From TrEMBL:
Predominant cellular place of this UniProt entry's protein: membrane
Region (Disordered): 146-165
Protein family: Belongs to the TonB family.
Keyword terms: Cell inner membrane, Cell membrane, Membrane, Protein transport, Transmembrane, Transmembrane helix, Transport
Name used for this protein in its record: TonB family protein
Any single GO BP term: protein transport
Amino acid sequence: MADQNGGRTGEGGVFARIAGSAEYSIAAALLAVCVVVGGALWLLQPESADVVAAPVAAPTSAVAAVDEDAALSDWKRRLGEQFSQAEAEQRQRAADEERARRARVVAEQEAAAARRQAEADREAQRRLDATALTALTALATPRPTVGAPVAAPRTSAPVARPTPPPVAAVQPTRVAAAIDWSSCEAPRYPALSVSRGEEGVVVIAADLDAAARIVDLRIAESSGHSRLDRVTLEAVRDCRFTPATQNGVPQAATAEVRFTWKLQN
């Protein structure tokens, strides 16, 4: 009987220990679940939120939580630095693009100003040409050759009837070539010559063929100013001429064209 009671007592102790061990396992499992849930909530909360460790957590769990917090803070810090650097680079690119755009705007404005200035200069030149006196009309002076009068035949006395002398030959009539100013424009006074007060007379020699076409042009007499000589020569080059004639027949000849350059006071 005593043996039976002792056996029952031993069996009861074993069952008690098993029951205590099961309760301990359940408590440990619940504790682990609490730690996992708490860690997940801490990661999902904002950075400013502080997670209070459960009083039931073991010291090793607290140390692990502190390490995770430090690692997360360091990761956030590095991420923030990368974001700050990327934002700074983006701002720098935006600033560079803005400077380039302003430079293009300034260049376009300067180009437009240069075009306006060039147009103003051309307009001023046109006005100066309009106000300056043009060259006085210079025409080639024809130099006709007057034929000598025909000698009248002598009449002999009715008695002697001598042989009359031969009739003098009629001199050919020649008309010089002349410039046709209706076919071209007179030269305009150069602005620089006006400002410098350049004046003078230019004589242009024009070699013409029988059809009054220009074969060669040259300056026969200079005005003393190369600019006036050049403008005169170019103006005569665009003109037509009337041909020189001899007894009404066109001939090749040289025409002289005289230009007088004079400013009005």
